[in-house]
């Protein structure tokens, strides 16, 4: 069965599908000696080279989760000294699924599986992300009502969501969309500043038992559950789905 060129490249774990598109656009990929292009299909037995070198043999996909500390940036750019890839320091090429702001902390997934990345990032799938958020001052009931109903930020109106007060200036929020810096900008729009933000759950996976700065592999049960949740993923994207 043939497959798209960018998927073929990302499936080897060499890079993400988006990065594969960049290699293709930069005329650095050949298929059977001919320059590859975005619509190229690859059949079994085809010879794909990047910068004249064969791709690594496909390895079993890796799935791990990290309790990201503050100060680590969710980028694969190794020139950024705070990049998440060097922080995890895993022997195989992996990339984060979505992002957490540099000043935010908590649960983030990393993998070599480009397919699952794309499925999870489609916010239209409604996968839940749960956060604990602390603001610079106590808030009132009106703040909670507005956060629950949706807040107008530069990207548009946020979707209604679950919000529960945990302390005078701390609340729990569950999002099913992933606009860039969404929670911080929702709070700013209502006159509050976020002083601490921690993601404690993605879908059915929680931070329980994972200390700050540490990572672990998914258990087989967690992986099976994750794959079942994304099995019927929609093909329409709406934002990146795993921001904060």
Q: Can you describe this structure?
A:
By secondary structure, this protein is an alpha+beta fold. Helix content is 23%, strand content 27%. It has 3 domains: 3-54, RNA-binding S4 domain (Structural Genomics Hypothetical 15.5 Kd Protein In mrcA-pckA Intergenic Region, Chain A, Roll), CATH 3.10.290.10; 63-123 and 209-230, Alpha-Beta Plaits, CATH 3.30.70; 128-202, 2-Layer Sandwich (Alpha-Beta Plaits). Strands 7, 8, 9, 10, 13, 14, 15, 16 and 17 form a 9-stranded mixed beta sheet that branches. A 4-stranded antiparallel beta sheet has the order 3-2-5-6, with no helix packed on it. A two-stranded antiparallel sheet has the order 1-4. Helix 1 (5-11) packs across helix 2. The longest helix has 11 residues, at 220-230. It starts with a strand and ends in a 14-residue tail after the last helix. Belongs to the pseudouridine synthase RsuA family. It catalyses: uridine(2604) in 23S rRNA = pseudouridine(2604) in 23S rRNA; uridine(35) in tRNA(Tyr) = pseudouridine(35) in tRNA(Tyr).
